[in-house]
Design goal:
Shape: globular
CATH topology of the largest domain: Aminoglycoside 3'-phosphotransferase, Chain: A, domain 2
CATH architecture of the largest domain: Alpha-Beta Complex
Number of strands: 13
Number of helices: 11
CATH superfamily of the largest domain: Aminoglycoside phosphotransferase (APH), C-terminal lobe
CATH class of the largest domain: Alpha Beta
Length: about 325
């Protein structure tokens, strides 16, 4: 087998499998030895390979060996939520094999079909009609948010009877990165104090959790693939990452997102919840930056959080 992996420093968060481990997991999943396995860059969480099985090319995704609580069991949440993404199944990779036993490697892994097109980042740069792209994203997100659930929280658990319980659980998960979390503690206090505002949301809806430019595939002007829903959850649609990103740069091409998705509510309760969701997203971004070793970008995150807390107060 031809094997190519990305060289990383000792102690790096992402860790490659050995060639023999790749052969072993391919044998379990498909009963054959791969012709080649090439590790792909671009992501910052799972370790991903393009695997040639001899006439069939598949994607192997391997979960990290360690993670913070907010990122734990991402692959299991992705797998548990997959049936509920049926309305956009034509855009998503097919799952071919999943192994959570840790028998062959001490990590979760899954094989999927390979999507066509080019990466979202590459394709987006070449687009002449960027508003058209965001209209497509808005339509896809609207369809996802139309899927109803029974309880709030993560697809593989824990789940909660109320939205406020789910939000408070998420805030607690965001406090274990070894960083100053005094601002996140205040976010939790404000969320608990205003639980009634959060619990105006009574119907869980499906959230992709990470549907934006990096996690789509493009063929020319058309979105032909959507992937990486391991941050999926059941909650308030306004709390989804797509909504956060769509509203982050008003006055730009992103505004076209709302043409197909629909305009966000401007009620006082909705505006307050939106600020709280921004705080939660900033907490998640802080943990990711810390995990990636981007220490010089973390102070700006604290500054952004201070501005959102001023709104929440």
């Amino acid at each position: 087998m031809r094997y190519e992996s990305i060289t990383r420093p000792d102690g790096a968060f992402q860790q490659a499998l050995t060639a023999s481990q790749v052969v072993a997991v391919c044998g379990r999943g498909f009963g054959r030895k791969p012709v080649s396995a090439v590790e792909l860059g671009g992501g910052s969480f799972n370790t991903t390979y393009r695997v040639d099985l001899g006439g069939e090319t598949v994607i192997l995704r391997v979960a990290p060996a360690r993670s913070y609580r907010i990122e734990r069991d991402f692959m299991r949440h992705e797998h548990a939520s997959l049936p509920f993404f049926a309305p956009i199944a034509d855009l998503m990779p097919r799952t071919l094999f999943v192994d959570f036993t840790h028998d062959l490697v001490p990590r979760d892994y899954t094989f999927q079909t390979m999507l066509g097109g080019v990466s979202g980042a590459e394709g987006f740069r070449a687009l002449a009609d960027k508003p058209g792209f965001f209209r497509q994203v808005g339509e896809i997100v609207r369809v996802v948010h139309g899927v109803r659930g029974e309880r709030f929280g993560r697809p593989a658990g824990p789940t909660h009877a109320t939205w406020s319980e789910a939000v408070l659980s998420t805030v607690e998960f965001l406090r274990d990165a070894g960083l100053d979390d005094s601002d996140m503690r205040e976010v939790g206090v404000l969320a608990a104090k205003n639980s009634a505002v959060l619990d105006e949301i009574t119907e869980p809806r499906l959230l992709h959790g990470d549907l934006w430019i990096p996690n789509v595939r493009l063929d020319g002007e058309r979105i032909v693939g959507v992937f990486d829903h391991d941050r999926a959850s059941w909650g308030d649609p306004a709390a989804d990452w797509s909504i956060y990103e769509a509203g982050r740069k008003p006055g730009t091409a992103r505004d076209a997102f709302w043409d197909t998705y629909g305009r966000p509510s401007t009620s006082p309760s909705a505006v307050w919840r939106s600020a709280l969701y921004r705080a939660v997203h900033l907490g998640a971004v802080r943990i990711e930056r810390h995990r990636l070793g981007l220490a010089d970008t973390i102070p700006a995150n604290y500054e952004d959080m201070a501005r959102v807390l001023a709104e929440l107060r």
